[in-house]
Amino acid sequence: MIRFTSLGSGSEGNALLIEAGGPRGTRLMIDCGLPVRQALARIEARGIDPKGLDAILVTHEHGDHIGGVMGLARKTGATVCLTRGTHAALHTRSAEACNGVTLRLIDSHDVFELGCVEIRPFPVPHDAREPVQYVVAYGELRLGVLTDLGMLTPHVERSLEDCDGLVLEFNHDPDLLAQSTYPDSLKQRIAGRYGHLCNRDAAGFLARLSLDRLQHVVAAHLSQSNNSPEHVLTAVREAIGVVPDCFYLATQAEGFDWLTLQPTL
Ligand SMILES: [Zn+2]
Ligand SMILES: [Zn+2]
After folding, report:
1. pLDDT for residue 112
2. pLDDT tens digit string along 169-191?
3. Could you tell me the distance, in angstroms and rounded to a whole number, from the CA of residue 148 to the centre of ligand 1?
4. Hey, what long-range contacts does 175-183 have (CB within 8 A, 24 or more apart)?
5. How far is the CA of 22 from the centre of ligand 2 (A)?
6. Is 105 a member of any domain?
7. Is 154 exposed, middle or buried (0-12, 13-18, 19+ CB in 10 A)?
8. Any idea what the CATH number is for the domain that residue 159 is in?
């Protein structure tokens, strides 16, 4: 089985904890944009010893994803996996950023193994140096993660075709964003092709996926200013008629609790 939980989701910090193959299997995080002390406390609150963390997969260099990664890696000994572009961007900011951390530089198209899981990165359109998102595969099970992208591409959609679980960005409602007090440049960035996925695009993607296979879908990275749970649910209803029972919302303060993917017979 695979189980996964978010320690927080949104522009103030993202961290997703994943365990595959039970307590003796592989434990990893995707991103850690939370302060290290808070991340450690939240990992423990989920019943996990932070020292048992095998690796942290980084999606890109924005602070809400990478802010706590190196500090957490130093505390836990976890290996940090990141693309060359993300690594270069980090080094431009600080030459010492990765000191004392075991790094594994990855290619944004190449599958690699990590303990008992297979990691399948894929590139996404976002305003970072070499951003990727991931599918984590264990046996027949696939958990897909897709946040921080301005638009869906055929390659992104193909990469997530056969998922059993999906964490999907529902960033903003376009009308709320247009009416917000954000400066125009920021509005354009968020709504642009290298910004963030709006509710309608995310819900449209969901409508094109095979809902029969999906055991859990979590709406993630919701804007606290330009979105609301009601707006997300309305977009889902408009795209597929109903809100499926397996649909959840992640929050900035709480993330979401453990969800489990089981092999189907
Ligand atoms: Zn983000
Ligand atoms: Zn970002």
Report:
1. 98
2. 999 999 999 999 999 999 999 99
3. 5
4. 176/225, 176/226, 176/227, 176/228, 176/231, 177/223, 177/226, 180/225, 180/226, 182/225, 182/226
5. 31
6. yes
7. exposed
8. 3.60.15.10
- In which residue ranges of the chain is pLDDT below 50? none
Domain count, the chain: 1
Smallest Cα–Cα separation from 10: which of 29, 39, 35, 33?
33
Does residue 8 lie within any of the structural domains?
Answer: yes
Q: What predicted TM-score, i.e. pTM, was given to this entire model?
A: 0.97
| Cα dihedral 155→161→164→168 (10° resolution) | 50
Mark 89-125 as b/e (b = at least 16 C-beta within 10 Å).
bbeeeeeebbeebeeeebebeeeeebbebbbbbbbbb
Ligand 1 centre and the CA of 71: distance in Å?
Answer: 19
Counting ligands in written order, the one closest to the CA of 62 is 2
The pLDDT score that the predictor gives to residue 232 is: 98
Neighbours of ion ligand 2 (CB under 5 A): 62, 148
| The pLDDT of residue 24 | 87
Say how many Å lie between the CA of residue 263 and the centre of ligand 1: 30
Residue 217 alpha carbon to ligand 2 centre in Å: 21
For residues 240 and 204, give the distance between their C-alpha atoms in angstroms, rounded to a whole number. Answer: 8
Domain hosting residue 120, numbered range: 2-249
Query: Please, what is the angle between helix 36-45 and helix 69-76, to 10°?
Result: 60
Asked if residue 44 is part of any domain, the answer here is yes
pLDDT of residue 23: 82
Residues with CB under 5 A from ligand 1 (ion): 64, 148
Q: Give domain status of residue 254, yes or no.
A: no
